From TrEMBL:
<dbReference type="Pfam" id="PF00271">
    <property type="entry name" value="Helicase_C"/>
</dbReference>
<feature type="region of interest" description="Disordered">
    <location>
        <begin position="1"/>
        <end position="39"/>
    </location>
</feature>
<dbReference type="InterPro" id="IPR011545">
    <property type="entry name" value="DEAD/DEAH_box_helicase_dom"/>
</dbReference>
<dbReference type="GO" id="GO:0045943">
    <property type="term" value="P:positive regulation of transcription by RNA polymerase I"/>
</dbReference>
<protein>
    <recommendedName>
        <fullName>RNA helicase</fullName>
        <ecNumber>3.6.4.13</ecNumber>
    </recommendedName>
</protein>
<dbReference type="GO" id="GO:0003725">
    <property type="term" value="F:double-stranded RNA binding"/>
</dbReference>
<dbReference type="GO" id="GO:0008380">
    <property type="term" value="P:RNA splicing"/>
</dbReference>
<keyword id="KW-0378">Hydrolase</keyword>
<keyword id="KW-0347">Helicase</keyword>
<feature type="compositionally biased region" description="Basic residues">
    <location>
        <begin position="11"/>
        <end position="26"/>
    </location>
</feature>
<dbReference type="Pfam" id="PF00270">
    <property type="entry name" value="DEAD"/>
</dbReference>
<dbReference type="GO" id="GO:0009507">
    <property type="term" value="C:chloroplast"/>
</dbReference>
<keyword id="KW-0547">Nucleotide-binding</keyword>
<dbReference type="InterPro" id="IPR003593">
    <property type="entry name" value="AAA+_ATPase"/>
</dbReference>
<dbReference type="Pfam" id="PF04408">
    <property type="entry name" value="WHD_HA2"/>
</dbReference>
<dbReference type="GO" id="GO:0005730">
    <property type="term" value="C:nucleolus"/>
</dbReference>
<keyword id="KW-0508">mRNA splicing</keyword>
């Protein structure tokens, strides 16, 4: 395969488009010659474009290429197009993975625009619960989880000639698994005369580790287009990061020259709170001051609203983009000149000793400190188009205490979903499977134990029919088991709603200054049987109100999240129909729902202690408490089942439902047999 110049590449695009999508040229995304020329000129200005010939030359010579490009180098949008122009999509699609759906969808739109097509034609994307591809698609952006699902269905991935693994430096669990599986797949594809080209892209200089894993493959380094960034620290540690972030954003707006602000926060709740406070305080700004436009940006935000963060601000307006860590490296916004870094990131930590996956809240709203590498990434966002400033809401001494890099998820997360996927692909000898970073044996052991108790594996560590079905659902094993078991309890319609509700950020919101009013409203719509039953009541009420926004406002319910719940529920319903899972309702017999919950969350059951305040977990005897957000908080429910533990000064149970603990011996007999042997 030979290298091509831009003109030949453009001709290849035209030939493909004329054969595949003639009608496209009449559509809204068709480009006139002047616009095409303008886009090509902008592409040529990107640092990665200068390395185009070297990248394609090394791609021809090596099966695997490691590409290190600083954030803003253009690697994410340009490399897939280089590969297409060089003919790599002739015999199969080019897959490009991203760790987050926001990145997959936004980058696909950008590349489609540069390509001159609608999203879903030559350039498309696939994310959980959404597929925007067609028979014409040649460059397919997707989350790493979606490519893993395809691997379970087609172990050879014969639809793809090339796989680009982007943002590999994030070391997510899915990316870690893909690195191992793609290496294995490359070998088998080489032997079957249909070689697989692999490009691994990273924004940080951990390239040598990737190269060693892929047998000393070639590394190409592309410099970013970085301008100087002045880094500023706080003189003292901040007691309230959210307030400090809002104050800093307003200070920048009042005192600094024009340029948009990127402010890193933890999760949807913090972002929505900050947006509201900024909006309120902006009304007090002097008339001579530019307008201020808060733009939330987080994974659960609908794509149409995410686009506000990318679109140019109106004249005389400064955007303040309030984002989670998705804005660290997955996406690029050229207008950013100022960064406000809270130094925190939302993360799950699994404690195998207590079989507990928890969100750590002891710092700020379920966040833990970022690494030095992440701090550098965040600061770098301010130097894309001109010199900028990074305001770190922590002291220089606190920065020096940060770890050099984040701990890979494979070393700190629950691995049951990953292990189940490996078993479906016929990989059951976990000790011999080659990971880039070997997971701790205790994590693997606990994963096998959980899958056995969920009946996904039998006592011989063999995948069961139930386990295979569980793996086909885009859910964590307990939720997959919950959904698959629901028809036996005649409550699949109710479980569909509950699982969809638990798949989004909180449906309730607590606006500052109205928390008591919100609590009273929530009490009116809550169920005495617990949180899961409350979710059923809320969803039913929402449907009966005809999805009325005013109804949502009355009960302090997030209408946007309710729409998301409906979309996810419809998608899961489609999976149920494909899997021939009967869709039945228990009507008002909600005991069936509680019993079904126990089959999946058997280890998350607890009984009230003699003091009447704390609870004792049935499996581990751990002391736990009802979370203040639970509708059961302040009540004396005898026994409960819950979804997750949250660690603050105490261990709190979230999403709780009242149960009869006597059900467990009947519903999860394996648990009691195992406990008896212990």
């Amino acid at each position: 395969m030979s290298d091509v110049d831009p003109e030949v590449g453009e001709k290849r695009r035209k030939n493909h488009q004329s054969h595949g999508t003639k009608k496209r040229c009449q559509g809204k995304n068709s480009m006139n010659g002047e616009h095409k020329e303008s886009i090509l000129e902008k592409r040529k200005e990107l640092p990665v474009y200068k390395a185009r010939s070297e990248i394609l030359f090394e791609c021809r010579r090596h099966a695997t290429l490691i590409l290190v490009g600083e954030t803003g180098s253009g690697k994410t949008t340009q490399v897939p197009q280089f590969l297409f122009d060089a003919g790599y999509a002739k015999h199969g699609m080019i897959a490009v993975t991203q760790p987050r759906r926001v990145a997959a969808t936004s980058v696909a739109r950008r590349v489609a625009d540069e390509f001159g097509c609608r999203v879903g034609e030559e350039v498309g994307y696939t994310v959980r619960f959404e597929d925007s591809t067609s028979h014409s698609t040649k460059i397919k952006f997707m989350t790493d989880g979606m490519l893993l699902r395809e691997l379970m269905l087609d172990g050879e991935l014969r639809r793809y000639s090339t796989i680009v693994l982007d943002e590999a430096h994030e070391r997510s669990l899915n990316t870690e698994l893909l690195l191992a599986l793609v290496k294995r797949l490359q070998k088998s594809r080489q032997e079957s005369s249909f070689p697989l080209k692999v490009v691994i892209m990273s924004a940080t200089l951990e390239a040598e580790a990737y190269s060693r894993f892929f047998l000393d493959c070639k590394i190409v380094k592309v410099p970013g287009r970085m301008y100087p960034v002045e880094v500023l620290y706080t003189p003292e540690p901040q007691p309230d990061f959210l307030d400090a972030a809002v104050v800093t954003c307003l200070q920048i707006h009042l005192e600094e020259p024009r340029g948009d602000v990127l402010c890193f926060l933890c999760g949807q709740d913090q972002i929505e709170d900050a947006a509201k406070v900024l909006q309120e305080r902006s009304r007090a700004l002097p008339p001579s001051c530019d307008k201020l436009m808060p733009c939330p940006l987080y994974a659960a935000l609908p794509p149409s609203e995410q686009m506000h963060a990318f679109a140019p601000a109106p004249e005389g307006t400064r955007k303040i983009i309030l984002a989670t860590n998705i804005a660290e490296s997955s996406i690029t916004i050229d207008s950013i000149k100022y960064v406000v870094d809270n130094g925190l990131v939302k993360a799950r930590i699994y404690d195998p000793k207590h079989d507990m996956e928890s969100l750590h809240e002891e710092l700020q709203n379920a966040c833990i400190p970022i690494s030095k590498a992440q701090a550098k990434q965040r600061a770098g966002r301010a130097g894309r188009v001109s010199s900028g400033k990074a305001y770190r809401l922590y002291t220089e001494a606190q920065f020096e205490e940060l770890s050099a890099a984040a701990v890979p998820e494979i070393k700190r997360c629950r691995l049951s979903s990953m292990v189940l996927q490996l078993f479906v692909m016929g990989i059951d000898n976990l000790m011999e499977f080659e990971f880039m970073d070997t997971p701790p044996i205790l994590l693997l052991t606990k994963a096998l134990e959980q899958l056995f108790l969920l009946q996904a594996l039998d006592k011989n560590k063999t995948l069961t029919d139930l386990g295979r079905k569980m793996a086909m659902l885009p859910l964590e094993p307990p939720y997959a088991k919950l959904l698959l078991s629901s028809s036996k309890f005649s409550c699949s319609e109710e479980i569909l709603t509950i699982v969809a509700m638990l798949s989004v950020d909180s449906i309730f919101f607590n606006p500052a200054g109205k928390r008591e009013e919100a609590a009273r409203a929530r009490h009116l719509i809550s169920s005495a049987d617990g949180d899961h039953m409350t979710y059923l009541k809320v969803y039913d009420g929402w449907l009966k109100s005809k999805k009325d926004r005013e109804w949502c406002h009355q009960y302090f319910i997030n209408s946007r999240n309710m729409k998301k719940v409906e979309d996810i529920r419809n998608q899961l319903q489609g999976y149920c129909k494909q899997g021939k899972i009967p869709l039945v309702s228990c009507e008002q017999e909600l005991t069936a729902v509680a019993r079904c919950l126990c089959t999946a969350f058997y280890s998350n059951t607890a009984t009230i202690a003699p003091d009447g305040k704390s609870y004792r977990m049935e499996v581990t005897a751990q002391e736990v408490y009802l979370h203040p957000s639970s509708v059961l908080f302040g009540r004396r429910a005898r026994s409960v089942v819950f979804d997750e533990l949250v660690l603050t000064s105490k261990l709190y149970m979230r999403h709780c439902t009242v149960i009869d603990v006597g059900w467990l011996a009947e519903l999860v007999p394996l648990l009691y047999k195992t406990a008896g042997k212990s």
